[in-house]
């Protein structure tokens, strides 16, 4: 985003809406730090800010790579033209009752890096993906972050994107249940290396007796799940074609 210095009157209305404090008053004009800006669009949405002079505008080239990654991973109103995967980011394992991605004996894991409120660099995201790749993780095909990797087996992000920063990105994969403990142990180890925050999502199926097999593992590792965690009721019809044809994305 850019602020037209001729139109700006320095009212400062836009400043509190930037999630990464990329907007500041310099002299009597508002200025956007181009390196810090995530291109999330908060400052330009008329229903949110209503700049009295219409001084904020999209910079030419915002939808071109590699800068476009910032927009597509930060603005929920856009689709991923770079990665060719539809939606804000991913269908995620939370839609398991209609996609059937996670079956009995498996766990679905999603790490949303940079959320809430801090954002994340691709360097931090790569620390996570490379660390998990050491465990033989196969990253979710229908996830835009996966499509930015130059080497999926090693979790390496393509060099052209490593200088970018986004509001958040989701690392997503499914693994056999017996890998849950080593995966979460690795996640706790990697967390200490990050200069941001992340949310951990874990999906598994109930056992026939109504218990959740993941809970004892979480307790052993000192991880306390939120009491208001999402519970899907299985009201959807499993998307069996997705399970049979792993190469395609559920829709």
UniProtKB/TrEMBL annotation:
Keywords on record: 4Fe-4S, Iron, Iron-sulfur, Metal-binding
Pfam families: Fer4
InterPro entries in UniProt: 4Fe4S_Fe-S-bd (IPR017896), 4Fe4S_Fe_S_CS (IPR017900), Fe-S_Ferredoxin (IPR050572)
Gene Ontology MF: a single term: metal ion binding
Domain 4Fe-4S ferredoxin-type: 1-28, 29-61
PROSITE patterns (alphabetical): 4FE4S_FER_1, 4FE4S_FER_2
Coiled coil: none
Gene3D superfamilies attached to this UniProt entry: 3.30.70.20
Protein name, entry field: 4Fe-4S dicluster domain-containing protein
Organism placement in taxonomy: Bacteria, Bacillati, Bacillota, Negativicutes, Selenomonadales
């Amino acid at each position: 985003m850019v602020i037209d210095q001729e139109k700006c009157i320095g009212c400062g209305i836009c400043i509190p809406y930037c999630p990464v404090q990329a907007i500041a008053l310099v002299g009597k004009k508002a200025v956007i730090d181009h390196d810090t800006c995530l291109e999330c669009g908060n400052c330009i949405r008329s229903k949110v800010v209503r700049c009295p002079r219409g001084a904020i505008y999209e910079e030419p080239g915002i939808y071109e790579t590699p800068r476009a990654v910032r927009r597509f991973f930060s603005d929920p109103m856009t689709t991923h033209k770079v990665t060719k995967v539809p939606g804000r980011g991913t269908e995620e394992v939370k839609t398991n009752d209609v996609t059937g991605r996670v079956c009995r004996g498996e766990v679905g894991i999603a790490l949303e890096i940079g959320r809430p409120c801090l954002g994340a660099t691709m360097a931090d995201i790569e620390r996570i993906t490379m660390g998990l790749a050491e465990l033989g993780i196969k990253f979710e095909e229908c996830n835009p972050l996966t499509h930015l990797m130059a080497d999926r087996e090693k979790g390496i992000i393509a060099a052209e994107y490593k200088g970018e920063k986004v509001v958040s990105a989701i690392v997503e994969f499914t693994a056999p249940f017996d890998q849950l403990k080593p995966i979460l142990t690795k996640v706790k180890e990697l967390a200490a290396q990050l200069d941001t925050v992340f949310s951990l999502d874990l999906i598994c199926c109930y056992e026939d007796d109504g218990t959740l097999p993941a809970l004892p593992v979480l307790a052993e590792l000192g991880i306390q799940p939120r009491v208001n965690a999402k519970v899907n009721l299985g009201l959807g019809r499993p998307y069996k074609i997705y399970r049979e044809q792993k190469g395609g994305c559920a829709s």
